[in-house]
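Final report, Chapter 2: Outcomes

The project's central promise was a pipeline that accepts a single protein chain and returns its three-dimensional structure in a standardized token representation, suitable for archiving and comparison. That pipeline is now operational. To close this chapter, we reproduce one record exactly as it appears in the project archive, with the input sequence first and the structure output second.
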Amino acid sequence: MEHIIRDGYKLAIIEQGAKENAPIFVIGSAIYYPRLFEHDVFSNLHLVFIDHRGFAKSANDNAPYSLDNIVEDIEAMRVKLNLPKIILLGHSGHGFMAMAYTNKYPERVSAVILANLAPTNSKERQEGSISYFEQTADEARKQYFYTEIAKLENDIKQNPKHRFSHMNIRMQAHSFYHYEFNGAYLWDGVVNNMPALDHLWGVEFAVFDTQSALHHLKVPCLLMLGAYDYLVSPISLWDAYLEKMPSIKRVVFEKSGHNPMLEEPEKFADSLRSFIAGL
């Protein structure tokens, strides 16, 4: 494990797998994401797990946490590892970070992989995803969700500093194909920098111009989606974007929710290898 220090944030970098292969920067938490990619099928990929400011604390009061700051952090990590070019994998909201970095540093990116995100994180889209869940999920899944989400208020009351983790744990009926799967372990030890997370997900990602970002991409792009990913549903939200960008390849995981690398690791790894082989 390596680190960089930026604006008082200690951001971790963890490299795994076959370092002779093209480096894939997985943006997010260097604690959380290795757990999603724990299957042996990923061992022949060169994965670089990197923290961002939403999952780190700063030693400095009022340290910034904008999307622009995170873009520069990614660039600093690339420089530290002395990598001429990287493949960026942005899962969930981190897809917006991947697009933002690629638009600013296109010469440093050989490809972008966007996984399990909606084109926007606006309030209207979030409400639409909830409505889609209510209209299409089976009753057993919905009842499980209602039971779990009722516990969220007390979770937050007991430990408000980890509200982001609590929310994701209690919304697992929205995020896993096997909705009774207990994924709470994924969040063990993950720092929640709530001011940063609230700003990024609630403000910057809500107004991010995905259409413009995709239009200005100068590198190949792979879009990976889970058929049961109610957190960012429905996947048809992407149809209008893909009609204008037919070069973007879409892969749908029929037995996955928000985390196909964990639920369908073989297909996920095969899709990655196939995409990279074609670069």
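Archive annotation: Residues 67-80 form the longest helix (14 residues).
This record, like all others produced under the grant, will remain available to the consortium after the project formally closes.
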